[in-house]
Amino acid sequence: MSAHNEHKTMTLTLIVWRQKYANDQGKFETYTAKGITEHHSFLEMLDVVNEDLIKSGKEPIMFDHDCREGICGMCSQVVNGVPHGGQERTTVCQLHMRKFRDGDTIYIEPWRARAFPIVRDLVVDRTALDTIIQAGGYTSCHTGGVPDGNAILIPKPAADYAMDAAECIGCGACAAACPNSAAMLFTSAKVAQLAALPQGQAEAADRVKSMLDAHKECGFGNCSNHYECQAACPKGINVKFIAKLNREYLKAQFA
Ligand code: SF4
Ligand code: FES
Prior knowledge:
Blueprint: H1 3-7, E1 10-18, E2 27-36, H2 42-55, E3 77-79, E4 82-83, E5 105-110, E6 118-120, E7 123-124, H3 127-136, H4 146-151, H5 156-166, H6 173-177, H7 184-195, H8 204-217, H9 228-232, H10 240-253
Parallel strand pairs: 1-5
Antiparallel strand pairs: 1-2, 3-4, 3-5, 6-7
Helix pairs in contact: 3-7, 3-8, 5-7, 7-8, 7-10, 8-10
This protein binds iron/sulfur cluster and FE2/S2 (inorganic) cluster (FES).
């Protein structure tokens, strides 16, 4: 890279959702992001804007983040109308400013779904996903000591299938992308992961029923086969797990 590019900076226009508290009406506000290089991550770009806001005595833009490396699922932002910004298998925290150009305008909003009430600005309450997990996303069988756990042989295809489902980081982008605000991709990944493993069999029927009941009670809609969830998912969770969820639910009716 040339020295010229190293020092080149961008100026961008940000149109950001600002909302003071849950029931506040909220509105878009416009900010200028100055001195941004291609090496800044998207969240670092917001950090720069926030430092400028704080220096000028204004309220910084509140946003959730933790790991900043695509693991924790906290960075719940809709960038230019797409949850996580629309890059394949990429969370907001993994977006980099090299993907944007000098002079770009970027719209930034929080997740929009009834089950994810806005707390402030870009921060939403994703407790609903925890409620679904608490309803059945665990096993409570007696597994014995560590050697006993290791003694349960798991066929490689089942382990691979479970690992694919276990990639879900619980970010909620699937629900934010769904026209019906369904969190079916999330719920199905958790159900399918445990349904694939011997340790998950004992509670399989109760699990799928309880988790789907919790999904409904939390205010998520039903799957409407738009597949927007799969397109938005930063972990590549496949809608085949929703088909698996439906099969598990059918089986549970006769269990
Ligand atoms: S299925 Fe994908 S989009 Fe939905 S919560 Fe899991 S990782 Fe996020
Ligand atoms: S901050 Fe952890 S996934 Fe983005």
